[in-house]
Specification:
Layout: H1 5-8, H2 19-31, E1 47-53, E2 58-64, E3 67-73, H3 85-90, H4 95-104
Antiparallel strand pairs: 1-2, 2-3
């Protein structure tokens, strides 16, 4: 099956967006109507080492500048790309993983 934007009634089936632009837009969306004392923290250049799901909140463990750190949050907005460590740690399969599993199962 071939999908075409015009057949679907849309101008495009997808877009490539720079990580910087996506980050800026996501941050702007989160900040709308957010009280100043609840403004989100942005963590750049960190290597994620773990996520603990505590039900109503998360504890995120990461290494930045050679130092192991942690942050507690109620919402984690992770913009970490196609090789998502966040998705891996939460056990969420990617489309690539699902397609590979289908190919392997075609014996």
């Amino acid at each position: 099956t071939r999908l075409r934007a015009r057949d679907e009634g849309v101008s495009a089936l997808g877009y490539v967006v720079s990580n910087e632009r996506l980050t800026a837009d996501c941050l702007a969306a989160v900040q709308v109507d957010t009280p100043a004392d609840m403004a989100p923290d942005m963590i750049y250049g960190a290597e994620l080492s773990g996520i603990d799901d505590l039900g109503e909140s998360l504890t995120v463990r990461f290494r930045r500048d050679g130092v192991e750190q942690r942050a507690d949050c109620r919402l984690l907005l992770a913009i970490d790309g196609i090789g998502s460590r966040v998705r891996e740690l939460l056990g969420i399969a990617s489309i690539r993983d699902l397609l590979w599993a289908m190919v392997e199962g075609m014996d």
